[in-house]
Design brief:
The complex is a heterodimer of chains A (244) and B (418).
Chain A: E1 3-14, E2 17-28, E3 32-36, H1 43-51, E4 58-63, E5 66-67, H2 73-79, E6 81-84, H3 96-108, H4 118-132, H5 147-160, E7 165-169, H6 177-192, E8 196-200, H7 204-210, E9 213-218, E10 221-226, H8 228-231, H9 235-242
Parallel strand pairs in A: 3-8, 3-9, 6-7, 7-8
Antiparallel strand pairs in A: 1-2, 1-4, 4-5, 9-10
Chain B: H1 3-24, H2 27-52, H3 60-77, H4 82-104, H5 109-128, E1 139-140, E2 146-147, E3 151-152, H6 153-176, H7 179-189, H8 191-196, H9 201-220, H10 223-227, E4 229-230, H11 232-235, H12 238-251, H13 257-276, H14 279-296, H15 300-305, H16 310-316, H17 318-337, H18 343-364, H19 371-381, H20 386-405, H21 410-416
Antiparallel strand pairs in B: 1-4, 2-3
Helix pairs in contact in B: 1-6, 2-6, 2-9, 2-12, 2-13, 3-4, 3-5, 3-9, 4-9, 7-9, 12-13, 13-14, 14-17, 16-18, 17-18, 18-19, 19-20
The chains are: A alpha/beta (244), B mainly alpha (418).
């Protein structure tokens, strides 16, 4: 398998605080990667640096072999790297369906492929909404959604950009057991369609059932990388989570 | 409606307005109408950046003045017809908008607003010290009295401003319904999420500042010919900055209709108030009206029309009811002291009082409360002996007291509280 995303020696500091310390990571095309770590370990910072929301001081991020240093976030999205936000950030003045029209118009239609017509865009939005189970909420405003539905919208909007790599940042926080299972099943289905997925999650059951490979971050450093059941028994990981 | 039919329709409406004004045959109408139309253009322009994209620009006066001073400069060096001056004003202000965007768009919220205000101050200082365009003394622009084939020059200027208003509204409406408008709205709602969805936020914000600046420059270009004598303090007047923010806010910022409603309403009101009563009471009235709007219709008149139930609930709250009631009685007192010509202005405030009575009356289960201000309004506005005014004041007092003191009926209270 070829590497889709390569992160090489990535570092990021906020003032004197080192948030990421020389992270090197590679994700193969079609892979399902779980990324875990205690609170404040740098997971979200890593996502922000990879997606271009934050600029990193050192290191490179390559996507499909081409370096992405210096690219803005929207350019990275257009190359096929989509993310959902940890706290849902819907476009509050737009209906749920219109929320999806933004990435469809600005990402899918901005690529060189033939442009989608207005009807095709509506169709694609409806398709995505029924995929995440929001079909009957299409005309509602985000403020009328529950927290769970908001997270589904967040995921649908990331998917609307038609990504090659999807980074789901805690898409399941606050969800009930069956809902978590639903989302995991959805993510696996997407993965089978050829989307590479990085899942950042605290719910271990979800991470374990989803991931083919697990990466653990602690205080900005990568301390483990490998098959989930082996990583989880790693003494260093245990120490980070449980203490000595 | 598509863009072409829309602009044709609005041009036709403009033509009817112009024909009607000519029928009245009073040149003052054109004089006042010009200012209202100018505010339509300014409010619409402001709204493209402020309403659609969510960046509050306090420097509207700078772009307006830039257009005006470009005209003064050219009038001195190489006189050109006004339509060409309008295009030049648009280009210059558009470029300054682009430049300002590059410098300031990293800032958000209050910081951006302050930066735009600073731009206005810097430009004003430059103009004051540039003697070629009159400096602090100001510059005279001699305009002809008549122009073929329209006749009076004021009518010509009015017609030009009417055309600009049609152009501005068409631009705003086209943006609103396009991909660009969706991108602007995404930036307004959440810039980070917009960027993550592939929206090139910096580019779009620069487009917004450029279009907005260009439209403001267009509005400013004919101004020296209108006023005849341009000085920095009138071109950079705070009125422009404040009005071009207040008008869209009052009308509603999410649609092109909002600034139009706000500008026509507030602009005409200011014109009527300036003529019929002193300009200081004018300020009081406009200020109180803005207070009303902020409380009753925080999303603008459009939001109110679109039936957000919240407005009625908010004013039904006893404290808000009392405050707004008092706020709206104050201008009634002042207006009534003035000449009979000021009476029509009372209608607005009576209207708000009636709205308050409806909301409060329904809330406490005494909907007949509305009768009191309605009778009061009729007695107050129709000319008659001073006893009439006394009765209407009494009715207001009763409405106020009962609105606060009457016990809510049990059944109403139960159904009123969700």
């Amino acid at each position: 398998m070829t590497a889709l995303l390569e992160v090489d020696n990535l570092s990021k500091r906020f003032g004197g605080f080192v948030a990421l310390d020389g992270i090197t990571l590679s994700v193969a095309a079609g892979e399902r990667l779980g990324l875990i770590g205690p609170n404040g370990s740098g997971k979200s910072t890593l996502v922000n640096c990879v997606c271009g929301t934050l600029a990193s001081e050192m290191g490179t991020v390559r996507f499909e072999g081409a370096t992405m240093n210096g690219l803005t976030a929207h350019e990275r999205t257009r190359r096929g790297l989509a993310r959902s936000f940890q706290l849902p950030r819907p476009f509050t003045s737009m209906s749920v369906a219109e929320n999806l029209r933004v990435p469809l118009l600005y990402t899918v239609n901005a690529r060189s492929a033939p442009h989608l017509s207005a009807a095709a865009i509506d169709e694609r939005a409806a398709e995505l909404l029924s995929l995440v189970g929001l079909a009957d909420k299409a005309r509602q405003l985000p403020r009328d959604l529950t927290q769970v539905e908001m997270r589904k919208l967040e995921l649908a909007r990331a998917l609307a950009a038609d990504p090659k790599l999807l980074i789901a940042d805690e898409a399941m926080a606050g969800l009930s057991g069956t809902e978590v299972a639903d989302i995991v099943a959805l993510l696996i289905r997407l993965n089978e369609r050829g989307i590479t997925i990085i899942l950042i999650e605290h719910i271990m059951r979800a991470v374990m059932s989803f991931s083919q490979r697990l990466v653990v971050l602690v205080s900005g450093k990568k301390i483990a990388d490998g098959a989930p059941d082996i990583v989880i028994r790693d003494p260093e990981v245990e120490r980070a989570y449980i203490g000595e | 409606m598509r863009t072409l039919p829309f602009s044709l329709t609005s041009a036709a409406i403009g033509a009817i307005v112009f024909a009607a004004a000519r029928l009245v045959g009073n040149d003052y109408l054109f004089f006042a109408g010009y200012v209202v139309l100018q505010y339509v253009v300014l409010a619409t322009a402001w709204n493209i950046l402020g309403g659609y994209t969510g960046y509050v620009n306090f420097g509207s006066a700078a772009f307006f003045a830039l257009g005006a001073y470009a005209s003064v400069f050219l009038n001195k060096t190489y006189p050109l017809p006004i339509p060409i001056l309008i295009v030049i004003g648009a280009v210059i202000s558009g470029f300054v908008g682009l430049g300002m965007g590059y410098l300031t768009l990293r800032l958000r919220g209050a910081f951006f607003a302050i930066a735009t205000l600073a731009l206005a101050v810097v430009l004003q200082t430059l103009i004051i010290n540039w003697s070629y365009v009159g400096g602090a003394r100001g510059a005279y622009v001699i305009r002809p009295d008549e122009i073929e084939p329209i006749g009076s020059y004021v009518q010509y200027l009015f017609l030009l401003m009417l055309a600009l208003a049609v152009i501005a509204l068409t631009v705003a409406r086209t943006i609103e319904r396009s991909r660009l408008g969706l991108g602007f709205a995404a930036i307004r709602d959440d810039e980070l999420a917009a960027e993550a969805s592939g929206v090139p936020t910096l580019k779009l914000k620069l487009i917004a500042t450029t279009i907005s600046g260009a439209l403001m420059g267009m509005a400013g270009a004919p101004f020296p010919y209108y006023i005849g004598y341009l000085q920095p303090s009138s071109a950079f007047a705070l009125d422009y900055a404040v009005n071009s923010i207040a008008m869209p806010m009052i009308g509603g910022t999410t649609s092109w209709v909002g600034p139009l409603i706000g500008a026509v309403l507030l602009g005409s009101l200011q014109q009527v108030a300036t003529v019929t009563i002193s300009s200081s009471v004018n300020l009081l009235i406009v200020g109180l009206l803005i207070v009303d709007c902020v409380i009753i219709a925080p999303t603008g008149i459009l939001g109110l029309i679109q039936g957000r139930r919240t407005a009625r609930d908010v004013v039904a709250d006893p404290a808000v009811f009392a405050l707004l009631f008092v706020v709206n009685v104050i201008p009634l007192y002042f207006l009534h002291q003035e000449a009979l010509t000021a009476r029509p202005l009372e209608v607005i405030f009576w209207g708000v009082l009636i709205f308050l009575a409806i909301a409060r009356g329904r809330m406490i289960g005494h909907p007949w409360l509305i009768v009191l201000p309605m009778v009061g309004a009729a007695l107050s506005i129709v000319p008659g002996p001073s006893l009439q005014w006394l009765i209407s004041a009494l009715l207001l007092a009763i409405c106020f007291a009962w609105g606060l003191l009457l016990r809510p009926r049990e059944d109403a209270a139960r159904s009123g509280t969700p």
